[in-house]
């Protein structure tokens, strides 16, 4: 017991010393390639930013992503229910139908609010 504790402490201390040593070695001995092309910003395939940096994005992109996650989580809850539907019986069926009706009413609400219209 004590031997295992000592060995694990030595291993942790060794790892704690070796990792920063490797990071320092790559910084000191690693290649340094710089230049005007390397120092330019690159994001998502766009080489140069066009327009102002403070450009406002539409909230609809974020809202659509949140709605996708919300309705994607529905599938995560439905899969275990579908696997154990026989063991759950009628009570599980009624619970899942209540869950589906709640989500469907949320979908109808966001459609009526015009969230999915891109105009």
UniProtKB/TrEMBL annotation:
| Main location, first listed in the record | membrane
Q: What is this protein's name?
A: NADH-quinone oxidoreductase subunit A
How it assembles, according to the record, is: NDH-1 is composed of 14 different subunits. Subunits NuoA, H, J, K, L, M, N constitute the membrane sector of the complex.
Highest taxon above the source species: Bacteria
The record's similarity note reads: Belongs to the complex I subunit 3 family.
The organism encoding this protein is: Desulfobulbus oligotrophicus
What are the protein's UniProt keywords?
Cell membrane, Membrane, NAD, Quinone, Translocase, Transmembrane, Transmembrane helix, Transport, Ubiquinone
Q: Where are the transmembrane segments?
A: 6-29, 61-82, 88-111
Instruction: Please tell me one Gene Ontology term that the record gives under cellular component.
Output: plasma membrane
Functional summary from the UniProt entry: NDH-1 shuttles electrons from NADH, via FMN and iron-sulfur (Fe-S) centers, to quinones in the respiratory chain. The immediate electron acceptor for the enzyme in this species is believed to be ubiquinone. Couples the redox reaction to proton translocation (for every two electrons transferred, four hydrogen ions are translocated across the cytoplasmic membrane), and thus conserves the redox energy in a proton gradient.
Any single GO molecular-function term of the entry would be:
NADH dehydrogenase (quinone) (non-electrogenic) activity
Please state where this protein is localized. Cell membrane; Membrane
Q: Which EC main class describes this enzyme?
A: translocase
What EC number(s) does the entry state? 7.1.1.-
Q: How does it sit in the membrane?
A: Multi-pass membrane protein
Which gene specifies this protein's sequence? ndhC
Q: Which reaction does it catalyse?
A: a quinone + NADH + 5 H(+)(in) = a quinol + NAD(+) + 4 H(+)(out)
HAMAP family annotated for this entry? NDH1_NuoA
InterPro entries per UniProt: NAD(P)H_OxRDtase_bac/plastid (IPR023043), NADH_UbQ/plastoQ_OxRdtase_su3 (IPR000440), NDAH_ubi_oxred_su3_sf (IPR038430)
